[in-house]
């Protein structure tokens, strides 16, 4: 769901101003869930891979006042947006650096950082194992890394919405066919172990919204529609979906949004590990 930072790999959501705005809102919506167990209290030099528009960078700097964050991304447009967003926050001043870079070939010396952060990034990368290996190279012994990733097979919406499900399968197929992995969250433990990390821990986190939080449920469904539609042009251009399915999905989402008994569920995985 985030931006990416390697090679010429196509980003399924695009780089429009609307997408940049969505990433800022996404970071705020998921902040409490994402950061509930993240602790960088002992770190001072953090590498953020796929910093995008700086949405997560701002949170990291706000929550951990001793951190200096170096954010990398492959997109000049995203980095320019990140500079604007971070420059507007007084507490970020002189505490970050942004650099265009390939996450699979980092332009940093060994042991340059004592922490790393990756969020919604590896799902878009054709070589996540290589990225994690490069990140480990630039981390010092004892450094901590947190990686958060999607598990798209967990998505559930009620009432039943067949056009949405067809579109969601096309969305995942397109990402997979383009070299990404929409189910990589479940594989983080294996990837980190293979990458030479130790003390690997994983936690399944979820967003489960029903009648107990009707306002947040409606907000999340509206946001999810933005996520889905951000890929519509690519999916139609590739022949994986059509106008009728996209229009049908819009109608179904409108109906679900207004249903007094709607249910939204999505799970993802957060991993923590350290460097030997």
Describe this entry's structure for a reader.
- With 276 residues, this protein is α/β, with parallel strands linked by helices.
- The chain has a single domain (17-275), classed as 3-Layer(aba) Sandwich (Rossmann fold).
- It is 40% helix and 23% strand.
- It contains 9 helices and 8 strands.
- The chain has helices at 17-34, 55-63, 76-87, 128-137, 162-177, 188-194, 214-229, 232-237, 243-258, and strands spanning 45-49, 68-73, 96-100, 113-119, 139-150, 156-158, 197-209, 263-275.
- Strands 1, 2, 3, 4, 5, 6, 7 and 8 form an 8-stranded mixed beta sheet that branches.
- Helix 4 links the parallel strand 4 and strand 5.
- The longest helix is centred in the N-terminal third of the chain and has 18 residues, at 17-34.
- GO terms for molecular function: methyltransferase activity.
- This is Methyltransferase type 11.
- Residues 47-146 form the Methyltransferase type domain.
CATH fold call: Rossmann fold
> Structural class of the helix and strand makeup?
alpha/beta
How many separate helices?
Answer: 9
In round numbers, the mean pLDDT is 93
Overall form: globular
Query: Proportion of β residues?
Result: 15-25%
What would CATH call the homologous superfamily? Vaccinia Virus protein VP39
Q: Which regions are unreliable across 5 or more consecutive residues at pLDDT < 50?
A: 3-9
Count of spatially separate domains: 1
Number of strands: 8
Protein name: Methyltransferase type 11
Keywords: Methyltransferase, Transferase
GO biological process, one term: methylation
Organism: Dyella acidisoli
């Amino acid at each position: 769901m985030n931006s990416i930072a390697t090679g010429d790999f196509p980003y399924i959501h695009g780089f429009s101003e609307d997408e940049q705005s969505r990433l800022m809102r996404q970071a705020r919506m998921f902040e409490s869930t994402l950061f509930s167990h993240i602790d960088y209290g002992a770190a001072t030099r953090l590498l953020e891979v796929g910093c995008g528009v700086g949405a997560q960078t701002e949170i990291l700097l706000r929550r951990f006042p001793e951190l200096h964050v170096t954010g990398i991304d492959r997109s000049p447009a995203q980095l320019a947006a990140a500079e604007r967003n971070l420059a507007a926050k007084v507490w970020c001043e002189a505490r970050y650096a942004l650099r265009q870079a390939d996450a699979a070939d980092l332009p940093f010396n060994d042991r340059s950082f004592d922490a790393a952060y990756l969020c919604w990034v590896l799902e878009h990368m054709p070589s996540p194992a290589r990225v994690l290996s490069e990140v480990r190279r630039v981390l010092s012994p004892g450094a901590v890394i947190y990686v958060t990733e999607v598990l798209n097979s967990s998505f559930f919406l009620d009432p039943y919405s067949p056009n949405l499900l067809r579109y969601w399968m096309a969305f995942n197929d397109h990402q997979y066919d383009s070299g990404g992995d929409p189910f990589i969250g479940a594989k983080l433990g294996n990837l980190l172990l293979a990458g030479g990390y130790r003390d690997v821990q994983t936690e399944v986190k979820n967003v489960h919204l029903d009648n107990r939080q009707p306002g947040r449920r409606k907000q999340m469904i509206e946001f999810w529609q933005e996520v889905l539609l951000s890929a519509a042009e690519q999916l139609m251009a590739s022949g994986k979906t059509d106008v009728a399915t996209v229009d049908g999905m819009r109608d179904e989402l409108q109906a679900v949004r207004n249903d007094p008994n709607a249910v939204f569920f999505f799970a993802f995985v957060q991993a923590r590990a350290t460097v030997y």
